[in-house]
Amino acid sequence: MHGVRAVFPGRFQPFHLGHLGVVKYVLEKVDEIVIVVGSSQESHTYQNPFTAGERIFMIKESLREEGISMDRVYIIPIPDVLMNSVWVYHVRMYCPPFSMVVARNPLVLRLFKEAGYELLVPPPISREVYSSTNIRRKMIFGEEWKSLVPGKVYQILKEIRGEERLREIARGETYGEER
Predict the structure, then answer these.
(1) Hey, how many other C-beta atoms are within 10 angstroms of the C-beta on 5?
(2) Into how many domains does the chain fold?
(3) Domain contains 179
(4) pLDDT tens digits for range 111-148
(5) pTM of the full predicted structure?
């Protein structure tokens, strides 16, 4: 597939080994990948605890650690637009031209299919294990999560005290505090 560029949207809260597996799978099939860091305006909430900058850093350092050439990768933060009907156009505004979308989410697939894009559905990579929601829960409860993320993600999350941030957020949301 010469000259094919694919978009891979996600929130990557945090970027984990399942995401890394998808990136590797996609790079075997296309020339370039555009990793779209969604909900980029969000941070410090249970669903979106990490900033766009932190997530971009995690992704870039993980790919670099794997020896993946950044010449083939774009990492682009995109804020939410709360209207599904215009989301594809919104993504197109932020990204270089692309012809393919990589996703497993049925809504994402439907929206891009309706807009005429080619779809690439990666195989499931132990989704019950490699889930950002599961990893965040493990971080809050002090369970083992290091084996679920690339080494660089673990290192970055330790440096930014990600577990502590998540515990404080969870405690605040438990008591109904507004943030």
Answers:
(1) 18
(2) 1
(3) no
(4) 999 999 999 999 887 766 789 999 999 999 999 999 99
(5) 0.93
